[in-house]
Amino acid sequence: MSATDLKILSIDIGGSNIKGTVLNHKGDFLQNYQKLPTPVPSSPLKVMNVIQLLANRFPKYDRVSVGFPGFVKDGVVKTAPNLGTSLWTNYHLEKHLQTKLGKPTIVINDADLQGLSISKGQGTEMMITLGTGFGSAIVHNGVLVPHLEIAHHPVTNKKDYDEYIGEAEFKRIGKKKWNKRMKRVIEILKTVVNYDKLYISGGNADKLDFKLDKNIIVVGNRDGIKGGAKLWEHHING
């Protein structure tokens, strides 16, 4: 089968919902975007069963791409802070999903998947996601750099980024204080990463109420899932 004929099931696992669609090799939607609630507790078996339910809604696909909310190395989950790291550590999600769905599968970090999707391939581009937790990805001249767990780097003496600006903290401190913190986070990233463009996605991206720099762009979650096509393109092309 030619790479241009591939139909790719792209799955985005989130702390609140698991989303999916089928893409062509260009990242165009071939099926309507679908989502189901992330199960609680979010054990590997329960999450894979939800993915199977989503996959059953899309009868025709040849490859599978999955974005997972945690650190993933060679298809093996190392951390899953918003699903339960103790449930997921060293779980070979890629291998088990490939067996369950019966199609070649690639699993990477969810922000990395979105970063691949949004990247224009020019300079240093950074993607951050503001959802249940905080996700990040860096793409340099179109090439995804090794995943950095910025979410778990300390931003204060007591809190990492997940704890400082994640969904739980947004609810605790309110929109005004959360936006003040987001201003601080962006200033830190601007200095540390020196990005040419910063993309912001996730369920809380629309809660930002201050003026953003011209090189900061808010993008939708649906745009991020298109990275499933680029992931296979990169894999096929080495």
Radius of gyration: 17 Å
CATH level 4 superfamily of the largest domain: ATPase, nucleotide binding domain
Helix content: 25-40%
Q: Going across the major beta sheet, what is the strand order?
A: 3-2-1-4-7
Write the SSE topology.
Elements: E1 8-13, E2 17-23, E3 34-37, H1 44-56, E4 63-68, E5 72-73, E6 76-77, H2 85-88, H3 93-101, E7 105-109, H4 110-118, E8 124-130, E9 134-140, E10 143-144, H5 161-165, H6 167-193, E11 197-201, E12 216-218, H7 221-224, H8 227-236
Parallel strand pairs: 1-4, 4-7, 8-11, 11-12
Antiparallel strand pairs: 1-2, 2-3, 5-6, 8-9, 9-10
Helix pairs in contact: 1-3, 4-8
Describe this structure in words.
It is a single chain. This protein has 238 residues and is of the alpha/beta class. The chain has eight helices and twelve strands. The protein has two domains: 3-110, ATPase, nucleotide binding domain (Nucleotidyltransferase, domain 5, 2-Layer Sandwich), CATH 3.30.420; 114-223, Nucleotidyltransferase, domain 5, CATH 3.30.420. The strands form three sheets. The protein has a five-stranded mixed β-sheet with strand order 3-2-1-4-7, sandwiched between helices. The longest helix is centred in the C-terminal third of the chain and has 27 residues, at 167-193. It is globular, with a radius of gyration of 17 Å. The mean pLDDT is 92.
